Description:
By secondary structure, the protein is of the alpha+beta class.
Amino acid sequence: MGYFASDEEEKARRYDFRQKGKATQQHLATLEGELKHFAAAWYDLAQYGRNPESVTFTVTDDQITVQRDTKPITAVLLRYFDAE
């Protein structure tokens, strides 16, 4: 909007900017949560992969589960291996 925008147009524009800002913040919060989960899953997998004799790895259609004495310790979603 330019210099000659009405008050209603300015209010609508500010409202649109606020809504876009809120949506962007929510999206960033979601990405942050996913990234933390991604990093923790890879860290856990790497830690247990250092000593694979003490654990069992079970692969299903959607995840890799690390188990010790048939009890799940951690799981990594296979989508974390997808490069796309």
